[in-house]
């Protein structure tokens, strides 16, 4: 394989421990498959932003100078409306210049453009990046996520996609995305449902069924159940719409009440329950519901560090989560996990659980009642070490397959070989 340099786009930020763990997992994957190749990671955030500075401090595995800022300065979470409009105008102009590839002899291109066109190849980082929802008006989001792929394709830079969950590609989204997938050297999926979905598109590119790269940084081992009388159960909420924006709708409010009642019953039954926070938006939810949670009697644990979270979940007998990456942290250390999900979030939860042969522990919101959650909890706790061993074995197998599949893809793809 005659490959000296790679660009990884995008590297995610620190607001969400799960997104940040994708960075670490993807870098670990590259270190195991192409250890001698120079890797430059392009951040989703501009180099002058506070989020970029946090990434520089926290992200191990990237040498000094190998993390560069991204071209997108728009950030509705921290900017006033006039600042948002100004950022959109600047970003739109930069987007046009980069994607069109004009004025190569002038210093008008972004660090993303330079990083991609100067490298031998580009890898698009894994996650939940490629999706579209007209009801949430996220075409600008989709365009921003496709930015690196468009630059690589326009400039004949070979590229591949690390494990993705992809869904809802209809209309304009399908017309935008399918050509980019078709021209990729390979496309990796991170769950079985996405693999089946993309298989229906008849792509000529190599399609590989993998798992989220964040699994790679855990050590899957079968844990022993609690020695005490109390079961140790961690619970992770997610009460937000697609993309973590918008008000809680009727289904969300029903699930919120179900979730809180379920926690109340666990505590009443003598279980030791810890509400675990690993995203800033969930920290805000916990603060809004502090009185109710205190009345229930749950413990609290908050961290945005993937290693700390893995250690935390390793101490638990069970995790019940609405966030996929909480499940990944727990499953990657062999802790039995129940996943509760909304279809609007895509197939990442149920698809991942299916990949790991634990599909019965993925519960959709419309099937989640206090009673079904209690029944799944009792079943998982009864299975105990046997379920933990099953999880650990399957995670180990999928991790090894992911490394092997990427190594093979890189060595056999025409653009990388």
Automatic annotation (TrEMBL):
<dbReference type="InterPro" id="IPR007345">
    <property type="entry name" value="Polysacch_pyruvyl_Trfase"/>
</dbReference>
<dbReference type="GO" id="GO:0016740">
    <property type="term" value="F:transferase activity"/>
</dbReference>
<keyword id="KW-0808">Transferase</keyword>
<dbReference type="Pfam" id="PF04230">
    <property type="entry name" value="PS_pyruv_trans"/>
</dbReference>
<protein>
    <submittedName>
        <fullName>Polysaccharide pyruvyl transferase family protein</fullName>
    </submittedName>
</protein>
<feature type="domain" description="Polysaccharide pyruvyl transferase">
    <location>
        <begin position="16"/>
        <end position="341"/>
    </location>
</feature>
